[in-house]
Amino acid sequence: MLTAILALGTLAALFGLLLGYSAIRFKVESDPVVDQVDAILPQTQCGQCGFPGCRPYAEAIANGEAPINQCPPGGESVIVALADLLGRDPLPLNEEHGEHKGKMVAVIDENICIGCTLCIQACPVDAILGAAKQMTTVIESECTGCELCIPPCPVECIDMEPLEREIGDWKWPLPEHEVDS
């Protein structure tokens, strides 16, 4: 029994050392500007900006390949924060990518839902629960309001509703920005 414990302890120590060395030796360095830009973006993973998610859009912004005004879910507050971070002038939201609607959440009418699971497959953040031919529901705290679950629904049982604001998440509206000529 003692030899088995010693053998397992030795193996655990060796694997720990190997993993520690590998973590240091093969560490992938990331661009801190990309990390900062990504932290500002709303993480809806909706693709409305023309990129497959928030991280690719953050990389494009940091590399100067995309403007800072392509994120409808983030709206003006994200544009202003990105402008401050990157030392650029704030731009109005590019209407080509959509309009800012505020925080929305998907609501499924369970009386109409047929349990096809197409919305579950479309959700980029796994905020929809259900199974084939069973009731499907949305986890409100996980839903980012990206609206990607609406187009695949064959019975149109999904609606987007504004998330009710509570005193803890209410913010003053941003002041109008004047553009210098």
Automatic annotation (TrEMBL):
One of its GO terms (biological process) is electron transport chain. [4Fe-4S] cluster 2 binds at residues 113, 116, 119, 153. It comes from Solemya pervernicosa gill symbiont. Gene3D superfamilies: 3.30.70.20, Electron transport complex subunit B, putative Fe-S cluster. Its EC number is 7.-.-.-. Residues 29-88 form the 4Fe-4S domain. It is an enzyme of class 7 (translocase). Pfam families: Fer4_21, FeS. InterPro entries: 4Fe-4S_dom, 4Fe4S_Fe-S-bd, 4Fe4S_Fe_S_CS, Elect_transpt_cplx_RnfB/RsxB, RnfB/RsxB_Proteobac, RnfB_subfamily. It is found in: Cell inner membrane. This is Ion-translocating oxidoreductase complex subunit B. Residues 104-133, 134-163 form the 4Fe-4S ferredoxin-type domain. Binds 3 [4Fe-4S] clusters. Part of a membrane-bound complex that couples electron transfer with translocation of ions across the membrane. The gene is rnfB. The complex is composed of six subunits: RnfA, RnfB, RnfC, RnfD, RnfE and RnfG. Belongs to the 4Fe4S bacterial-type ferredoxin family. RnfB subfamily.
